[in-house]
Specification:
Keywords: FAD, Flavoprotein, NADP, Oxidoreductase. This protein is of the alpha/beta class and 322 residues long. The chain has two domains: 195 residues, FAD/NAD(P)-binding domain, CATH 3.50.50; 117 residues, FAD/NAD(P)-binding domain, CATH 3.50.50. It is built from six helices and 22 strands. A hairpin with an 8-residue loop joins strand 3 and strand 4. Helix 1 packs parallel to helix 3 and helix 4 packs parallel to helix 5.
């Protein structure tokens, strides 16, 4: 029976497993996919992240490699390609039922993120055979965009990050957004305004048509009559993702807006079960990797206090690492 089992092998789950190792806990890390890394590794491995402490810039693949290297220091047990379906209370802890068998654990930390993610599709009819060719929802390799004319649809952090990342690589970058204002960090917007990225606001994509290996976009002005035609090599759609956390409803947890409700110690409605990262909701919650990194030590420390009330937690990192 493990002392702590972390469900979810994304950045926050990996850091939770590492910190539990710092506290000398016996740790099991379970990930449903065949590889660790979560969203940054599987959805946008080439995307540059700017809000990871200690790294001015790092992409999803590099961040995953660093976290795997870090967590390996304490040699946690790692179980990939395993989906937990039930969390059953047993004497001394919990039985986790999965498609790869059962696991026993004294406490649980859920770090499943937003669950299964699907990109929000274009709201216009188009030939979906263009997906993965002229139309893309993910970027696996930046070199696929080198010296090309690229259009990006969206106005949030991800769309602007991609525009800034591709600007020095692509021949041209066009950013299409339905508002004049962007929903992104002020510093990113300032950098965007000083960049070579061509902004098309406030416009929506009204129609798309393949032109051989290229794609022609018809842009319609929002609350206006203007129309613009734009022909590019690739369209990158960044309208966000729809998440599916249906397994949470099977785990008998109190939910808040389809996310796990937790208290200030990251404790769920079931004693000994904690949740961190994008899977949780509480007043003031920020959906950032940086926030999840801060929540992980809180959950681990409280889990060990729950198991060993008389054991005093170390106050500083220097007292932990060896």
């Amino acid at each position: 029976m493990y002392e702590i089992t972390v469900i979810g092998g994304g950045p926050v789950g990996m850091f939770a497993a590492f910190y539990a190792g710092l506290r000398s806990a016996d740790v099991l890390l379970i990930e449903s996919l065949s590889e660790l890394g979560g969203q940054p590794f599987n959805l946008y491995p080439a995307k540059v992240l700017y809000d990871i402490a200690g790294y001015p810039a790092i992409n999803g693949t590099e961040l995953t490699a660093k976290l795997i290297e870090q967590s390996a220091h304490f040699e946690p047990t790692i179980q990939t390609a395993t989906t937990v379906t039930q969390i059953e209370t047993v004497e001394g802890g919990y039985r986790l039922t999965s498609d790869q068998g059962d696991f026993l654990t004294k406490t649980v930390i859920i770090a499943t993120g937003g669950g299964a993610f699907l990109p929000r599709k274009l709201a216009v009819d188009y030939d979906e055979r263009m997906d993965g060719h002229q139309v893309n929802y993910f970027v696996r390799d930046l070199e696929n965009y080198r010296d090309l004319d690229v259009a990006i649809a969206g106005g949030g952090d991800s769309a602007i990050d991609w525009a800034l990342t591709l600007a020095p690589i692509a021949k041209s970058v066009h950013l299409i957004h339905r508002r004049n204002e962007f929903r992104a960090l002020e510093s990113s917007v300032a950098t965007l305004n000083a960049s070579t990225v061509v902004q098309h606001t406030p416009f929506l994509i009204n129609a798309i048509q393949p032109e051989g290996p290229l794609v022609t976009l018809n842009l319609k002005e929002v609350r206006g009559d203007a129309n613009v035609e734009l022909t590019v090599d690739k369209l990158l759609v960044n309208y966000g993702f729809m998440s599916d956390n249906k397994q949470l409803k099977q785990w008998d947890l109190t939910l808040d807006r389809n996310l796990i409700a937790v208290d200030s110690q990251m404790q769920t409605s079931r004693a000994g079960i904690y949740a961190i990262g994008d899977a949780v909701n509480y007043p003031g919650k920020l959906q950032l990797i940086a926030s999840g990194f801060g929540e992980a030590p809180t959950a681990v420390n409280d889990a060990l206090s729950y198991l060993y009330p008389d054991r005093r937690a170390a106050l500083h990192s220097s007292q932990l690492y060896h």
